[in-house]
Amino acid sequence: AQKVTQAQTEISVVEKEDVTLDCVYETRDTTYYLFWYKQPPSGELVFLIRRNSFDEQNEISGRYSWNFQKSTSSFNFTITASQVVDSAVYFCALSENNQGGKLIFGQGTELSVKP
Amino acid sequence: GAVVSQHPSRVICKSGTSVKIECRSLDFQATTMFWYRQFPKQSLMLMATSNEGSKATYEQGVEKDKFLINHASLTLSTLTVTSAHPEDSSFYICSARAQQGIPPEAFFGQGTRLTVV
Question: Does B7 touch chain A if contact means CB atoms closer than 8 Å?
Fold first, then answer.
């Protein structure tokens, strides 16, 4: 069965600190996709990244970076030099290739960045 | 990225009435649309999957007679909450997928916050 676990419910940091959001997934499929979304208080989901199961290369986009490790079924997300505007709920999600594109979401991590 | 528009963004309705929420793909044809529900402080849970021109597939525990989904065209899917009750108050959000056979790209609408009083 597919499952996504974000063990950190809430994280609070002070501006300029680095913060890592953890994501662990379970799947029996060999082809799957992992996503990260940001959900600000307004509610919309902001797409951050998609990674397929065959691409374990880490990715960096500005202050954001992602560490995908199939050996530990993890897809962690790091924000470097956090800013107040990073405050939001962050969701990790899984889509299996044979499921037509539907997403299984983790429980979400609420990040609060204080000035 | 592609644009998905959801309307209305907020709605308040009286208990017992029905509410329709629209999800439109503005610049691509969506063969598949997904409807999710999110209760406060919780995750997003898939309610149903709709494919254009066919009946929606509902997740376990979702009442298909209460949450009517119509996907009559490649750019529009609607979710109707029938005989709404206060426990249906939630954030409903749709996503749309362009076509099969390519990596899934889930483009989300802005969401609809439903309050049943």
Answer: no
